[in-house]
Every structure is written in structure tokens, then in C-alpha cells.
Design goal:
about 290 residues; 2 domains; 11 helices; rod-shaped
């Protein structure tokens, strides 16, 4: 009897252990099936693919294919603003570098030339785009014109100093105006391009909301694509405005420095051609030391 009881216990344990494991697996399977409804994995995969497709549709090519007449007007306006700004930036940068690179040499050579006739001849040999030589030529021309008309009513109305001063003022105003050509375009582009882009954004969001309302869908795929495309217009507007504003500030500062040299050189020219002596020649020599 003892042997039978002893042999029966291991046999019962061996049979019970697999049965318990089977019951546990069945319970886990039931819990998993109850937690994940049928078709949930397929729905999650489909939603992920829809979101990915919506994000891939938020590009410029997709935006251009859905633009209407106002959207194209905004886009073309921004492109023209950008092209005009960059063309002016490149041309004016070369012009300012050319002027600042030659102005010291032109003024120094004029004052170091021993003969006034040789100095004027040197100015006549300068390129047409060199403004400082034009100031000297206008001043020399005004002095010569006043001298040729001595005894006339012109000389009686304006003395030599006043006549030369008037010619120099006109020359400085003319050359300063040439330096400022195009700055209005940069200022206009920098101030209006963000609002032009914002107009495209507002118009795009308006149409996106109409399409969303008509379709009856409010998912991320239906909202992100149209709204993201509309925001591209704002980014384009800022991309056009920022370089224009930076260039405007840079050229405004550069022109201010050149205009200051215009005034200084014009003052020296007036003293020289009105009095007949190089007043600033000694001053420049001291400054060089």
C-alpha cells in the first residue's frame, strides 16, 4: 500500500503540470484576443500609411499642381521680387567694390599731380562709372566757364565761389542719386514679400478648409497636407524678404560712407578751384604721416 501511494504522487504531478500550462496559454490567448479586436492591426497599419502619404504630399511640386489663379499670382510675384533683388545685389555689390577700390587712388593722384591741367586730364581718363572724377571735372568745367565769361552778367550775378559751389552741389546730388538706384526695390521687397506670402497662405488654408468640409474627413491626412502646402507660401515670402532687408541695410551703410567722401572731396575741390591754391594738399599729407 505504501509503494502504491508513493508511485501515484509523481504520476499525478506529471499529468497536472502540462494541463496547467495548457490552461495558462489558453487564458493568455483569450486575453490577447479580447484586448486586440479583429482588424485593429490592419487599421493601425492603414492609418500609418495614410499619414505617411499625407506628409509626402507636403512638397512644392504638389503645391504647384493645386494652385489656382491667385496662388499662381502670388508665386510669380515672389519669384519676380526675388530675381529683381538678387540682380540688384550682384550688380550693386560689384559697383560699390569698384568705387571704394578706386576712390582713394583717384583723389590721391589728383592732389599729388603738380599741374592742374594734368590732374584734369587724369580725371578725364577715368571710367564713366567712376564718380569722383566726375565731381572734379564738373568743378573744373564750372571754374573754366566762369573765367571765360568774366565781365558778363553771369559773373555779376554769381561770383566764382558761388558758381563753383552750385556746380558741385548738383554733381554730388547726381552721383548720390546714382548710388541709391534700386534701393527702393529692396525696401519694397523686404517690407511686402512676407505679406504677399501670407496672402498665399491664407488663400490656401481657406481652400483647404473648404475641401476638408466637403469631404467630411478631419484626419491628419486630410488636414496636414493642404495646410502644410499653404504654409510654404509664408516660407517663400520670408525667404524673399530676408535677403532684401539685409542687402538694403548693407548698401545703405556703404552709400553713406561714399557720400561722406563725396562731400569731403567736393569741399576740397571748391577750395582749390575758388582760391587757386591746394588747401587740402597739406592736410592730406599730414593725415598720411
Amino acid at each position: 500500500m505504501l509503494q502504491d501511494q508513493t508511485s501515484t504522487q509523481p504520476a499525478d504531478a506529471g499529468i497536472t503540470a502540462p494541463a496547467d500550462a495548457a490552461v495558462a496559454d489558453a487564458a493568455n490567448t483569450a486575453i490577447t484576443s479580447a484586448a486586440v479586436p479583429p482588424g485593429a492591426e490592419a487599421m493601425a497599419s492603414g492609418a500609418h500609411e495614410t499619414n505617411a502619404a499625407a506628409l509626402q504630399g507636403m512638397d512644392f511640386a504638389h503645391l504647384a499642381s493645386n494652385l489656382d489663379y491667385l496662388g499662381w499670382t502670388v508665386l510669380v510675384t515672389l519669384v519676380l521680387m526675388s530675381l529683381g533683388s538678387w540682380i540688384y545685389i550682384v550688380i550693386n555689390t560689384m559697383q560699390n567694390l569698384r568705387i571704394t577700390g578706386r576712390m582713394e587712388k583717384v583723389m590721391r593722384t589728383f592732389w599729388e599731380t603738380t599741374s592742374a591741367a594734368d590732374a584734369v586730364r587724369f580725371m578725364e581718363e577715368q571710367p564713366a562709372s567712376e564718380p569722383f572724377s566726375k565731381l572734379a571735372l564738373d568743378c573744373a568745367g564750372a571754374a573754366a566757364h566762369h573765367q571765360r565769361n568774366e565781365g558778363s552778367r553771369l559773373v555779376e550775378a554769381l561770383n566764382r565761389s558761388e558758381f563753383i559751389d552750385r556746380a558741385l552741389r548738383q554733381a554730388v546730388a547726381r552721383e548720390s542719386s546714382r548710388l541709391e538706384n534700386g534701393l527702393t526695390w529692396l525696401a519694397t521687397t523686404g517690407s511686402t514679400a512676407p505679406f504677399v506670402g501670407l496672402l498665399g497662405t491664407v488663400w490656401g488654408i481657406y481652400h483647404a478648409l473648404i475641401r476638408i468640409g466637403a469631404s467630411g474627413e478631419a484626419s491628419i491626412g486630410a488636414v496636414a497636407g493642404p495646410v502644410g502646402e499653404a504654409l510654404i507660401m509664408t516660407a517663400l515670402g520670408l525667404g524673399v524678404a530676408i535677403p532684401a532687408v539685409l542687402a538694403y541695410n548693407f548698401f545703405n551703410r556703404s552709400n553713406h560712407k561714399i557720400n561722406s567722401r563725396f562731400d569731403e572731396f567736393a569741399h576740397d575741390l571748391h577750395d582749390f578751384f575758388a582760391t587757386g591754391s591746394r588747401v587740402e594738399a597739406v592736410h592730406m599729407g599730414k593725415a598720411g604721416k
